[in-house]
Amino acid sequence: MYNPFPLLTPGLLKDQVARGKRYFVRQSFPRGYEGRLKAAFLLRAYPVEEKEIADAHLAALTDPAGLAGDTAIAQDTARPRDPNAYLYDAALPEHLERLYIAAGQPFGYKVFYAAKKGLDWKPPAVYQEKMKAYIRRHHPAWRTQKDGEKISIGLHEEFGELFLTFSFDKENDKIPFDLIEQY
Question: Domain check: are 97 and 131 in the same one?
Answer without folding.
Answer: no
